[in-house]
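Q: Here's a chain of 294 amino acids. Please give me its 3D structure as tokens.
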Amino acid sequence: MAWSGLSASTTSRRRPPPAPRPPRPRAIVWLTIFGAFSSPVYLPLTAWLVQSAGWRDTIRIQAGTILAAFVLAAVLVSNPGGFRPGQPADRAASVLRDAWRSPPVRAWLLSALIGGAAVGALILYQVPVTARAGLPLGVAAAVAGFRGLAQLAGRLPLTGLTSKLGACNTLVLAYAVGAIATLLLFVGGMLAPVLLLSLFAGASIGAVYTLQGIYAYELINPRHLGMVLGIQQAVFTIGGAIGPAAAGALLGATRSYMPAITIITAGFAAAAGVLLLGRARDHTAASFSDAEGD
């Protein structure tokens, strides 16, 4: 529910109607669509820089471009939270404490951890799994690169999907598509299934990245959006580190990619389930509160 857990406290048991929100999902979708072109530009550029300048200078150059991008964003994005001059900032601990009281926000953060683990493991292990299953290494790498381009397929329809299904349901759908697509790793030695894997997994990952911001915009007070979304991105990144490590431990213990594929699929499915559970708990709490207020 919009503004759940972060809205101003109320004086009655009945929940007030959600405050109107400006239509931002379209802007978020278009921003991430343009951002999806960064890989087709940066990956070939990185390869050229490594060959011509070496990997150390390449890292320095890319770090400089990242710094320039953040400085440019800081200059161009003014007053994103709607602060008034002289308005005191809310304490970080208070904002996070109030956010954690909301079941949808807790579910959103937990799903980010689990989903980040699944996404990180899939990105890391797609090439070795498909190469070991029989695809030539060059073909396996090229098909994995197609997965990055396929992220556009997951982002282009999001404006229509979120308007019909809502951001939460669309995010659940994206995770479900990722779970189904990952099953194709079990037949990773054949080109056609791996192409389908890259298409649908790429679309799923692209949609997930975009929907995190759209769903956050529904959940979080704009004044606190930057802080809480930053925490969510940190949680997603931590999951992205845990997932490959867990899959690697399974590979080392079993000498088989099958358990790793299984937990990646289960991770996507679990992220979807956690979101649905959080929304159900929020609806149950709202119904109970309304009943008490009658």
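Q: Can you summarize the key feature?
A: The chain has a mean pLDDT of 80.
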